[in-house]
Amino acid sequence: MKTSYTLTLVLISFLLFQSCRKHDDKPPKAVTLQLIADNLVSPLGVVAVPDNTKRLFIIDQIGKIWIVDDNGSRLSTPFIDVSSIMVQLNARYDERGLLGFAFHPDYRSNGRFYVYYTMPPRTGTSSNNLSRISEFRVSSNPNLADMSSEKVLLDLDDPQSNHNGGTLAFGPDGYLYIAIGDGGGANDVAPGHVTDWYLPNAGGNGQDLDSNLFGNILRIDVNSGSPYSIPASNPFVGKPGKDEIYAYGFRNPYRFSFDMGGDHWLYAGDAGQVLYEEIDVVRKGGNYGWNVKEGTHCFNAANNSVELPGCPAVDVFGMSFIDPVIEMKNSANPTGGKATTVIGGNVYRGKDIPEFKGMYLFGSFSQPGGVPNGELFIARPRSGNGLWDFAEVTLKDYPNDLGYYLKGFGQDKEGEVYLTVSSVAGPTDVTGKVFKLVAEKVEGGKK
What we know:
This protein is mainly beta. Helix content is 4%, strand content 33%. It has helices spanning 5-16, 107-110, and strands spanning 31-40, 43-48, 56-60, 64-68, 80-81, 98-103, 112-119, 129-138, 145-158, 168-170, 176-180, 216-220, 245-248, 255-258, 266-270, 276-282, 293-294, 297-298, 326-329, 342-347, 360-364, 375-379, 390-392, 405-411, 417-422, 432-439. The strands form six sheets. Strands 1-26-25-24-2-3-4-5 form an eight-stranded mixed β-sheet, with no helix packed on it. The protein has a four-stranded antiparallel β-sheet with strand order 6-7-8-9, with no helix packed on it.
């Protein structure tokens, strides 16, 4: 049975608001969702433009980026459309498509932005698709990209259709970070995976550092080099391992974000196999465990529903595995779980819901049953070891669940948080919507 709205807010108060700051002595306001855009197909995220226009750019998986202008209207022509050169997507469900979008920090002066999309496989390869990260420039029309300006940064021959990662974001250091999934397939042992050092689980791309870039978060410098250069402080510069790698040991770090405030931590939601889902705070050079571990548990590639009784604490390179900060049970977990997959979100830095300031918001794609019933969660970040407490955020107008598949998040320049959803699991129909997380409006239009 679902926790009632009142009890859920009490739980959030108890777990998350014990350390009193300004506003913390008050109960959280009722929160709900405000519709920002609809009639989308499969929106995966929202990106704010770093200029003074306050426009929001919506990533639609089918290959289009849509603009919501500063008047709150969605423009009828997409900012960019790569649908004609993408791989054909499966309407029922697909993890390919237009997956990532990021503006250069100096976009206002240089007009440069970056996209991650999947194309048909290259001739002569056995791959499922070609994953491409490219730079484009805006045209003389600020609402249209210059399609002739494409500069390819990275091409990856992706062996499977799933686990593509896809998030692009610039860090506070000015470098471009890229989430790359492990190459797909179950257990990290499917065709396209290499042999690594951990033989009990038959190897896999997650623990490999020198054969390919799969299963990693990358960091590159797009301001020098051809087509890019490697930051000198990247952890494997001058050591065994590909120089682009910033952190490794991921299965599918589909959505990640940097905290706009505080210490600007990098949060990544990494999809699990059958038992556990996780949120990681990503550190330079860190090994996040896959496929030696799933969450905080020892993974068993031969029987993924049963944990191994033990596994190494360090990898062959001498790096200790870094456990997640949040762990939740997958819906297929035999002991009971609700999340089909975790969706990484954002730390709230807005003003509309002051009680949430500094809290990390994330969610689940859906719950068991194959219906649109994703959920929203909140956690208080803290330093030190151990898993964080988290609680469901029950929205006043959505008391049981979101009523949609949750596909992504976004954040504007003021720190407010957005959710991207649709009523269909795959990239089809036009049920996609973008909502803004807001405090409930009460009588007189005041909060």
